[in-house]
């Protein structure tokens, strides 16, 4: 059985979600914060709350950093060290054009000169354990090759690979041929990430790639929060149990967000994304009803009606 890592999902897996998921459900080896970046020379206050160790107590969390230059990376590392973090994940996979066009995330993969400088920074910070989360490239599924050559000679705890290019975003099929080539070339522990939504698919990956050291799940876990636990315990829950889990987790999150955001409209817009990937689990009609509820009361009613 492989350890399961909860992928960072901007707008979903914030500190409240991670803490609540860990306390209520579990089955996760490690959570990663959505990427933290430099904006106007500093870290945004929203991100500061997310990485504050007080808000991550008793939860295995690694902060993820996104950067376009070594100057940005050095600044962010200084901030993380000041907070006491000793494990850091580096984002070389984000496909959002706003970030990638500035050379951040998957946009970095075409700049091997910067990757080489990043490798030097990693080597100079021996007190920190680094990992990398990456894609195959920005617009070319071969870009990973020179990048991996550099990373293979850099101390890393693991690499998590999502085998798509940045320009593919989340569309099209996963490139398993490229994944296999990466798998055979990578000298670091490798974690597979992408499109896993059932325990059967997870077992298949484990059998097909015996040298994998973990699986990373994102949208699949949001839709089915017990997915890691079901895989590890080899017991699939029934439809009723899935709905009960979603309702309980949703209720606990709502209680906490009600303390943070102001008013019903804000609470509704904070909670609605929780259901974004649940359509295959709850069905088309109930999904549409939740997503199109328009206000908090209709939204709560739509959840109440789930069967
Ligand atoms: C809404 C959304 C936000 C994301 N935010 C991040 C992020 O902050 N950092 C990151 O490395 N990846 C981010 N990702 C990518 C996921 O971590 C993951 O690699 C991707 O969803 C594929 O895994 P999955 O098919 O299991 O969801 C995001 C993906 C989505 C859909």
Protein architecture, described:
With 307 residues, the protein is an alpha/beta fold. The protein has two domains: 230 residues, Aldolase class I (TIM Barrel, Alpha-Beta Barrel), CATH 3.20.20.70; 66 residues, no CATH class. The protein is built from 15 helices and eleven strands. The chain has a nine-stranded parallel beta sheet. The chain has a two-stranded antiparallel ribbon with strand order 3-4. A hairpin with a 2-residue loop joins strand 3 and strand 4. Helix 1 packs across helix 11, helix 11 packs across helix 12 and helix 14 packs antiparallel against helix 15. The longest helix has 22 residues. The radius of gyration is 19 Å and the shape is globular. The two termini are 32 Å apart. 39% of the residues are buried. The mean pLDDT is 97. Flavin mononucleotide (FMN) binds next to helix 9.
